[in-house]
């Protein structure tokens, strides 16, 4: 089975800085592969290995994603090739635009048997992209998938839902969004890191996909700021354990809790 | 935008549908439209949706065996295209996310996910939700119609059932989907052991705990405080020491207890976002620089293996004194 796995390259949300006025800055954040996408890449590689197929990673973003360190990082994790859609219009794309771009790229790539996605992007975590791409392609599209088993011309999958695990047989081609439980990502070996530089990379713009100028925004982001913090007392007790415990118990008592 | 100012709501979960109806009433108050509930299940549930505050119900019927909730996407799409509501609020379960995403793709709009709050700035609808792992609150204004949003359980408080409420109930025909998946099996999970969202006190174990067996210490402290046991995500999803319904975090349980006591919890924002509404926050951690201390009312810097047993003794001593 040939697999296309989509991954998002974006500023690491762990690097966000909160300015004194409460606004958020990502200026100093390092661009990384989304943490939830690593499991999807690994699942794609394993699926292709089990079925003697190929894996291509697909990503879309502004100029910062067209970076050799990031490209090597993606390619050192087992895929055969990388396709990137690079365009400044993608710097603040909503899911509808992202999904249109990824679906367009998948069509231009000639399709695949399976398109895989992580459970959500590390920075926004809307948990929507895979579902919207699959629907735009007209493929069976499912989320919360914690297990995939290839069959003759279908996939046997398990969906990890709130009250049940649903076992489904899905015809191909299919778009599957996987959970973090699906597998453990391998650590890139030295060999894979060295080979990464040799693997084919294709770069397209929105114009190459015939999508230039069709990026009418579906939403306007009015503000991004730190959530209001409840003012906390921040009383610190640094005594030896016995004394600290007594002090804490006294405070709990004053709060009406003990 | 459409002339129809109605707010539609959909969830396969009855309780969540009730919550959405309440939230939709707030929106409909501004738009001047009706609240319409899309109901999947026995016809009585359509009546219940009206009793919970819906002005009308569109009854989709009971899915036949092997038919998934998600198979109703074409039916919902047809209704939306025909009746053109202002907005559709969908309960944020995994199935709800799937329905929302697929509808958005067909309607060429996007989804406002996990909305915490809606407000109107004049005519313009605004929705707040968290991004950056809980580190930031983003306010978005939809520019395209209809507005699709997902809303998690616990965001809105359902209205009381009022059996005297009247509302039209219209049956809707199922539109067969273009593609089908075959449901081979449904492994129903055992019922959850705890509803953390309802807990009045919580003792939360973090990665400071070295071994699974040490949970016994947490359980003892919880018992002496009359608290539920919870944990941060790694102890549930990674280590599997506790079931997933016990982990507090952005993608886990959200709690609003009188007391949250974190033991060996570092206080990463993806975790604390799930407990920031607690009345009193207490933390025990050996690292004086752990971020939790900035988010706590009372913090003990010390080794949990010494502090927790001492705290259990101190609390017991006070209780014994109190009962004399």
Offer a concise description of the structure.
With 258 residues, chain A is an alpha/beta fold. Chain A contains six helices and 15 strands.
Describe the structure.
The complex is a heterodimer of chains A (258) and B (324). Chain A has 258 residues and is of the alpha/beta class. Chain A folds into two domains: 2-209, HUPs (Rossmann fold, 3-Layer(aba) Sandwich); 228-258. Chain A has six helices and 15 strands. In chain A, the strands form three sheets. In chain A, strands 11-10-9-12-8-1-6-7-13 form a nine-stranded mixed β-sheet, sandwiched between helices. A two-stranded antiparallel sheet of chain A has the order 2-5. The mean pLDDT of chain A is 95. Chain B has helices at 14-31, 43-51, 73-83, 94-107, 215-225, 233-238, 269-272, 304-322; strands at residues 7-10, 35-40, 56-61, 87-91, 111-112, 117-121, 124-131, 136-142, 147-151, 168-171, 182-188, 201-205, 228-231, 259-263, 280-285, 298-301. Chain B is 28% helix and 26% strand. Chain B has eight helices and 16 strands. Chain B is α/β, with parallel strands linked by helices. In chain B, a hairpin with a 2-residue loop joins strand 6 (117-121) and strand 7. In chain B, strands 5-9-4-1-2-3-10 form a seven-stranded parallel β-sheet. Chain B has a five-stranded parallel β-sheet with strand order 13-12-14-15-16. Chains A and B meet through helix 3, helix 4, strand 9, strand 10 and strand 11 of A and helix 4, strand 5, strand 7, strand 8 and strand 11 of B.
């Amino acid at each position: 089975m040939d697999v296309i796995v989509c991954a998002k390259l974006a500023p690491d949300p762990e690097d966000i800085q909160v300015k004194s006025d409460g606004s958020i800055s990502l200026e100093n954040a390092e661009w990384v592969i989304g943490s939830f996408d690593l499991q999807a890449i690994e699942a794609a590689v394993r699926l292709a290995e089990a079925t003697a197929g190929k894996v291509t990673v697909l990503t879309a973003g502004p100029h910062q994603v067209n970076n050799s360190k990031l490209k090597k990082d993606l390619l050192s994790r087992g895929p055969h090739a990388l396709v990137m859609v690079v365009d400044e219009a993608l710097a603040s794309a909503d899911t509808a635009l992202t999904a249109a771009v990824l679906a367009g790229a998948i069509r231009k790539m000639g399709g695949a048997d399976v398109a895989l996605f992580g459970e959500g992007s590390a920075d926004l975590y809307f948990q929507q992209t895979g579902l919207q791409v699959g629907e735009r392609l007209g493929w069976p599209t499912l989320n919360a998938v914690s297990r995939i088993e290839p069959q003759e011309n279908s996939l046997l999958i398990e969906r990890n839902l709130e009250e049940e695990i649903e076992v489904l047989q899905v015809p191909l081609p299919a778009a599957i969004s996987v959970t973090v439980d699906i597998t453990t990502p391998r650590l890139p070996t030295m060999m894979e890191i060295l080979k990464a530089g040799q693997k084919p990379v294709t770069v397209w713009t929105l114009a190459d996909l015939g999508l230039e100028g069709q990026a009418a925004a579906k939403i306007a982001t009015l503000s991004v700021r730190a959530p209001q913090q409840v003012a906390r007392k921040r009383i610190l007790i640094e005594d030896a354990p016995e004394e600290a415990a007594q002090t804490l118990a006294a405070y709990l008592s004053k709060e009406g809790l003990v | 935008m459409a002339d129809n100012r109605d707010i539609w709501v959909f969830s396969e979960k009855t309780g969540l549908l009730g919550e959405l109806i309440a939230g939709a009433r707030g929106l409909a108050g501004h738009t001047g439209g009706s609240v319409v509930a899309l109901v999947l299940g026995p016809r009585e549930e359509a009546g219940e949706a009206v009793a919970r505050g819906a002005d009308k119900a569109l009854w989709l019927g009971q899915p036949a065996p092997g038919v998934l909730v998600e198979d109703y996407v074409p039916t919902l799409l047809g209704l939306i295209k025909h009746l053109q509501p202002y907005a559709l609020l969908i309960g944020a379960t995994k199935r709800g996310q799937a329905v929302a995403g697929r509808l958005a793709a067909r309607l060429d709009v996007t989804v406002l996910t996990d909305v915490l709050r809606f407000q109107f700035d004049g005519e313009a609808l605004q929705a707040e939700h968290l991004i950056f792992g809980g580190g930031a609150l983003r306010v978005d204004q939809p520019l395209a119609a209809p507005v699709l949003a997902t809303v998690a359980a616990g965001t809105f408080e359902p209205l009381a059932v009022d059996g005297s409420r009247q509302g039209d109930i219209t049956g809707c025909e199922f539109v067969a989907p273009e593609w089908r998946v075959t449901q081979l099996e449904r492994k129903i999970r055992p019922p959850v052991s705890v509803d953390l969202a309802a807990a009045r006190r919580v003792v939360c174990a973090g990665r400071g705990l070295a071994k699974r067996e040490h949970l016994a210490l947490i359980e003892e402290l919880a018992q002496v405080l009359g608290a539920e046991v919870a944990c941060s995500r790694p102890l549930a999803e990674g280590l599997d020491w506790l079931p997933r319904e016990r982990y507090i975090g952005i993608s886990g349980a959200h709690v609003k207890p009188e007391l949250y006591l974190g033991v060996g919890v570092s206080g990463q924002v993806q975790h604390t976002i799930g407990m920031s509404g607690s009345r009193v926050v207490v933390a025990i951690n050996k690292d004086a620089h752990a971020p939790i201390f900035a988010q706590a009312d009372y913090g003990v810097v010390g080794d949990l293996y010494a502090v927790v047993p001492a705290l259990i003794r101190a609390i017991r001593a006070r209780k014994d004194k109190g009962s004399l």
